[in-house]
Amino acid sequence: MSAAAKVSLLLFVAFCLTTSAMLAAGKPRSISTSRQFLVYGTDVRVRGAMCDLAERTKANLLRLLGQRDNWKTPLVVNLDYPRANFPDAPLAQLDFSQLGYGLKLQLNLLLTREMKGRAVQRELLRAILIEMMYRNRPNIADGTPYRTPPDWLVEGVLALEPGGEASEDAELLRSMLAAKTIAPLEEIVSQRRVQLDASSRRLHTAYSRALVQLLLGATRRELAAGWFHQ
Fold this sequence. Notes:
The chain is an alpha/beta fold. It has helices spanning 3-25, 44-65, 118-134, 151-159, 166-178, 185-190, 198-228; strands at residues 29-31, 37-40, 75-80, 92-99, 102-110.
């Protein structure tokens, strides 16, 4: 790519980020109870529901990790609806950037039939995890690519919410184990949920739940052993 092309690309990206931020700033806003989530949108009921969903999602994650809420970077959630002049707009887009005063996280959500409920929760959890990963790294150079949480981690945490289908997941894995068709770990952790069909997604959820449970159990055992030997 030529130098001129690189400059044009950078200008285009900067324009998109600036435009989305300006569009969000011009809308009514709701702030969640922890004040971490700033939700912009035209419908106050939708904004309130989004604040509640974000707080519940974070509370479940903190419960699993046994951590307190020590957020540092707020998450701007910009809600929009499909527009005829932007037919190819992505359903979800997370903007992560380094500004002069620190990090900025903005999640742009296009509210459609596909982007609701659990789909929205996945995007919120992904953004919450990114904030946790980078909250103590405020001096990241502008333009540095950031890592995103893998699909199995996001899905596993969501599957462990209270009221989840634990018995169904366990039964599914037992049947896979009896048939000796358990997938290799390398395959599970590299899967992209968007590329899976409905039955494969169901199995991916069961695998993800089991893997996150395994990791949480190992972490708790290590902490308990460390405390016992102090």
